[in-house]
Amino acid sequence: MRIAQIAPLYEAVPPKFYGGTERVVSYLTEALVNQGHDVTLFASGDSQTNAKLEAVWPRALRLDPSIRDALAPHALLLETVRRVAHEFDVLHFHLDYMPFPVFSQMDVPFVTTLHGRLDLSELQPVFNAFPKVPVVSISDAQRAPLKANWLNTVYHGLPRDLLTPREDVKPEYLAFLGRICPEKRPDTAIKIAAQSGLPLKIAAKVDKVDQEYFEREIEPLLGSANVEFIGEINEAQKPAFLSGAKALLLPIDWPEPFGLVMIEAMACGTPVIAFNRGSVPEVVENGLTGFVVEDVYGAVAAVDRLGELSRKDIRAEFERRFTADTMAQNYVDLYAQMLKSQNRPMLRQVS
């Protein structure tokens, strides 16, 4: 199958730093190539891929301080794809609603995966204007606030061997991984650790937009004897960090669309203790891969129950549900369904 993957230009694919959408696009693109598909990735020029790279802009926009209008490169991206759209079986966008006005007028199969939160009042009028545009959610919870032409939910996946359990590391602490921001509630993670009597290690980045929050709300708490702030870590550091954790804490205070950190922990055999928000009950199987709780009290009680869980079973569940190969196959099935419904032959069959 000839497939176009169209990524945002804000970060490289995969991103040099934090960037969930671009990271997922990378995992998906490489898995599709490995399955034998003819894939073209439309992305920034500093991207790395085994697919054919169409570099629409020289480098990621967030790494280019000269860029003042980020929409201009994306307008160029859409026009670049439009000109060659007929060369593909399917166009797969990761640009939210940006492609709708142009590609809904074209006789080319396209689909958009929505990666962000959808409980924003300004979104529904846009989707009302394009009621037939096919979209995919990354969890059932994500799609709940928005009426749209939902084709399916496809969960994210990681390359099978990207993160694996470290047998030489003994789990000794609780972990917080990702980004420091109000909706992720690192302050609550500190409170849970304190009440459970276990040390907490925080491996997270602080964006400029969250710097004031970090200095005002979080930094004063880091003086606690059992809290260690590590800062942002890369992929190579995650296996040891997560394998050394008794559990990953995810005390979120927002409707998480998916939450890659949860399956990163599972890949390392590490249980997840997460608040019941957004996608959490779809990703975490309560009593198997972790515990879904309602509050700090429930999280502390879950820490006491971690001995009931098997880290081997957690890793096995990751392999069953959340690998990049599984994600890619689910998308291929969806592409084929789209082509069949439109009576379109594939330009290239995978033998």
Automatic annotation (TrEMBL):
Residues 18-121 form the Glycosyltransferase subfamily 4-like N-terminal domain. Pfam families: Glyco_transf_4 (PF13439), Glycos_transf_1 (PF00534). InterPro entries: Glyco_trans_1 (IPR001296), Glyco_trans_4-like_N (IPR028098). Residues 167-310 form the Glycosyl transferase family domain. It comes from the Bacteria. This is Glycosyltransferase family 4 protein.
